[in-house]
Amino acid sequence: MGIESISDIRKREIVKAFYNTAIREGLENTSIAKIAKSLEIQPSLIIHYFKSKDELVTALIDHCLELYLQIFEKAYAAHDSKSEVLKSLLHSMFSKDWDALFDDGVYYSAYAMVFREPDIRDKFSKIHQTLRSKFSLLLQECLSSGIISCEEPEVAAHHVFSLVDGTYFYINMLSDEASQMEHLLMSEALALEIIGFKK
Amino acid sequence: MGIESISDIRKREIVKAFYNTAIREGLENTSIAKIAKSLEIQPSLIIHYFKSKDELVTALIDHCLELYLQIFEKAYAAHDSKSEVLKSLLHSMFSKDWDALFDDGVYYSAYAMVFREPDIRDKFSKIHQTLRSKFSLLLQECLSSGIISCEEPEVAAHHVFSLVDGTYFYINMLSDEASQMEHLLMSEALALEIIGFKK
DNA sequence: CAATTTATTGAACAGGTGTTCAATTGTATC
DNA sequence: GATACAATTGAACACCTGTTCAATAAATTG
Questions:
Q1: Are A68 and A99 in contact (CB under 8 A)?
Q2: Is A137 a member of any domain?
Q3: Domain assignment present for A57
């Protein structure tokens, strides 16, 4: 690990520039020329590393989805007891951290592609399923150690995930940050209720 | 009412063609030329009715958001008792009808614009708030007539709306329709629980 | 140092973008 | 039936799109 070829560095650099430009201009309005300009390189160099624009988009989405996986892994690494893992995980899911992980505008644009590009649907689907089954497993473990009390942990995992997705979809339509925060707290409380978390 | 000038007919026709093309090609990949081609007219005619492409996008979003308002109005018109209205409304919110109202890919692309275009954010925000306060009022009425039992109808309305948004976000990542349906039913059940609906 | 591979440039490509404008057709109004 | 107005065309605009390709610069290998 650690050793990275020039090629890999450039690739990451390009994906990053793609991401930053997409935040400003929108994912679909971000051309190879714009990315190249922001890096002060030629467009053809980008094509040299990513054979087509599709490949670039794929790389960005892969990067994005990996970030969400990392949140889970971090929560597991940071705490010993399942109880602590669950608590910190839930809190980060309903916090601005989770929201700040990846730009929402870019995320929803990428998500919109799910409906046209089967490959992208698979990517999103896979990650979502991975995260949910990890969470579901955690709930089962917490249930058997008596930390939580819900009837069906599998179902509860579904509910919590829907609630997370919906909450962020929702709060982005609220203009002031105070009501966004308020709504996040409300949703977190509901999530705790759904899984039957004992204080 | 009913009388529609040629101008209005063409405008609606253009927005409809825009929508249909966007379903296939994606909202951002839909050019004026493509819309014109699908209608077998000249691009300049579209500009004649909508001064710019931005105006066209705005018209499409307006049309979309109005559809969601109509679902609410239909539920109110179709039933006399508040209990019936609530039941039918909840059912349509968690059914494929709601989902089929507007193409998801186009919807999420439009939603992504919320993060770049303040005007579009306002539009989405306004409709969302309107729908939620209508729903909140309904819950309050049902609560006082003893049809439901929740502590805070305002909060319950928030929760149900988050759940709806999240559920559709969620199920679009599921590939087979059976599990989509299953998840919709699960979410509806949770919604009924949240508002304390009595069977 | 020479040979080879990789990184990077710059020009060119055919085709698409939104928009403008004058000219033409069609449709009502007086 | 002439006049006014709206609908529609078609050509033109400058600019941007993704991609190709040969040429050059730089780094790596033998």
A1: no
A2: yes
A3: no
